[in-house]
Design brief:
Helix content is 43%, strand content 13%. By secondary structure, it is an alpha+beta fold. The chain has one domain: Adenine-n6-DNA-methyltransferase TaqI, Chain A, domain 2, CATH 3.90.220. It has a four-stranded antiparallel beta sheet with strand order 1-4-2-3. α1 packs across α2. The longest helix is centred in the C-terminal third of the chain and has 37 residues.
């Protein structure tokens, strides 16, 4: 995966373009959000499609408690920026591999369906 652009959010800043926010403190650290809150990071994406993909990846990782092992702190747990990036990158790489594997598994099935079941010009 390419390098992620994630920064610590400053409440005085206003961001434009494709971005979303990720909580950095508390037991919900790692949770993606559309609106900024104190104690969060901001992730910048190159396109709306990439933003949506990363947002839902972060949501899935948060729901699956993948950020929990990286929480630090005894009173108010928090996640470090480097750990957040590592978890997201690993999740993204696994997602891409799963998509690639699924595509390679579906190709023979599609070829079979196009040649044996429904021979038409719609298969390409």
């Amino acid at each position: 995966m390419k390098k992620l652009k994630i920064k610590t959010h400053q409440m005085k800043n206003v961001y434009e373009g494709n971005h979303f926010f990720i909580l950095s403190k508390g037991l919900n650290a790692g949770k993606p959000m559309e609106k900024p809150y104190p104690n969060c990071f901001v992730l910048f994406a190159k396109s709306e499609e990439e933003k949506n993909k990363l947002y839902w990846l972060c949501y899935s990782l948060w729901q699956g408690n993948f950020f929990r092992p990286f929480l630090t702190g005894s009173v108010i747990p928090f996640i470090r920026l480097g750990d957040l990036k590592t978890v997201i990158k690993n999740g993204y790489d696994k997602l891409e591999l799963m998509i690639e594997n699924l595509t390679s598994l579906l190709k023979p099935l599609r070829n079979f369906a196009c040649t044996k079941l429904v021979p038409s010009n719609n298969c390409s």
